[in-house]
Design goal:
about 190 residues; binds 1-O-pyrophosphono-5-O-phosphono-alpha-D-ribofuranose; 4 helices; alpha/beta; about 25% helix; three-stranded antiparallel beta sheet; six-stranded mixed beta sheet
């Protein structure tokens, strides 16, 4: 879906389809340089990371394996607690693996912080993080991001995997959602 198909729901473009492709290619080159001979296990964090995973993995010119994890914070109101529930665990063992966590966005950083701690306890040889987006002004905890696409303003953005009420994930670019949309849904 293009922005033009979303009518007035998107008020401005934050990262265009073309910029996303360039950002993912840049990230892929850096990942290849670090992990070429390691056959990394890419771990996508559902559901937002599906588009990043699909495009980043295809951009990589090295062998990789893929797995998926689904997590949920205990409700929006308690998100700041950083308590995360596993909805779907990995199928693979992390023992001795070079893991690359693939995220669409690091917002408060709490999900990633929890994942890093959880994965460290599973015996991975190394753990790196790739995230297409980061909101520096929203970060509540410092988390390392080894491969970053773009820093973006602290606004409600959707598209390329990011949703509002499960919608807009299929937008090809990333844009700011018109506040009218969440007023309508409230
Ligand atoms: C988003 C995103 C990250 C997390 C980042 O997922 O995909 O996993 O939030 O936020 P944080 O840095 O504040 O922890 P979300 O919980 O919206 O689920 P979804 O990917 O299924 O949309």
């Amino acid at each position: 879906m293009d922005f033009s198909d979303a009518h007035t729901d998107i008020v401005s473009t934050v990262v265009s389809e073309e910029e996303i492709a360039k950002g993912l290619a840049r990230m892929a080159r850096a990942i290849e340089a670090d992990l070429a001979d390691k056959t990394p296990l890419l771990v996508g964090v559902l559901k937002g990371a599906i588009m990043v995973m699909a495009d980043l993995a295809r951009e990589l010119r090295i062998p990789v394996e893929m797995d998926w994890m689904a997590v949920s914070s205990y409700g929006r109101s308690t998100k700041s607690s950083g308590v995360v529930r596993i909805l779907k665990d990995l199928d693979s063992s992390l023992e001795g693996r070079h893991v690359l966590i693939v995220e669409d966005i690091v917002d408060s950083g709490l999900t990633l912080s929890w994942l890093l701690e959880n994965f460290e306890s599973r015996g991975a040889a190394s753990i790196r993080v790739a995230s297409l987006l980061r909101k520096p002004d929203a970060m509540a905890v410092e988390v390392p991001i080894d491969y970053l696409g773009f820093d973006i303003p602290n606004e409600f953005v959707v598209g390329f995997g990011l949703d509002f009420a499960e919608r807009y994930r299929n937008l090809k670019g990333i844009g700011v959602l018109n506040p009218e949309v969440y007023r309508d849904e409230a």
